[in-house]
Design a protein that fits this description.
Blueprint: H1 8-17, H2 25-37, H3 39-56, E1 58-59, E2 66-67, H4 73-76, E3 81-88, H5 91-100, E4 105-109, H6 127-135, E5 141-144, H7 150-163, E6 169-172, H8 188-196
Parallel strand pairs: 3-4, 3-5, 5-6
Antiparallel strand pairs: 1-2
């Protein structure tokens, strides 16, 4: 990865860093060098934080979020609306929703989307556990916060079909013109979705 000019230890550090999303070989080399230049300030605390996370962080048995507690801090928080479940594809989507601060219910992380091309079937995702959660009662609304992709919409349709018999209200995030967006700069699919999702003022 780094070439013969570095030690095997540094080469392994660079190789592992390059496996992270958004870091290619060149970015990984820069990150490794930055860490090596500040061992006390960066590398040692980072190594400690990673060890602690590896030992203590696990997947929530209720919603599949990652946390040091099970159930996670969201599922167990007394102020959350337990009657509303927001279904997201990945933990990163859950974090994005929490960052926006627009939702105070609970979540359910699917772990991806259905994809015939990639061979991802319903059994490969946390869909059965979602249906089980709703079937136990107490849920009034399931919000499908899928990405506006073919696989995301296929997954949303599949979940909607399987929740029909439960009687729970199933909604999805609106798709369309973003706040501050100008029509001239939007793609055709976004404009079409916005037109279909129009509502009364």
């Amino acid at each position: 990865m780094a070439g013969p000019s570095v030690s095997p230890e540094i080469d392994r550090l660079i190789t592992l860093l390059a496996k992270l999303p958004g870091l290619g070989p060149r970015s990984a080399r820069r990150a490794a060098l930055h860490l090596l230049k500040a061992p006390d300030r960066l590398m040692t605390p980072l190594a400690s934080a990673m060890n602690i996370a590896a030992e203590r962080i696990s997947t929530c048995s209720v919603c599949a979020n990652v946390d040091a507690a099970d159930p996670c801090y969201i599922c167990s928080a007394p102020g959350r609306d337990q009657s509303s479940i927001c279904v997201v594809q990945d933990v990163s989507d859950l974090w994005a929703m929490e960052r926006a601060g627009a939702f105070r219910g609970t979540y359910h992380v699917l772990g991806g989307t259905l994809s015939a091309l990639d061979g991802i079937r319903p059994d490969d995702l946390n869909i059965a556990s979602l249906i089980g959660r709703v079937a136990t009662g107490g849920t009034e609304e399931v919000i499908l916060a899928m990405n506006a992709t073919v696989d995301g919409q296929t997954t949303a349709h599949y979940i909607t079909e399987h929740l029909e018999k439960t009687g729970v209200r199933v909604t999805r995030l609106a798709h369309g013109v973003p706040i501050g967006g100008e029509l001239d700069y939007l793609d055709d699919g976004t404009i079409a979705a916005a037109m279909k999702s129009r509502r009364l003022l």
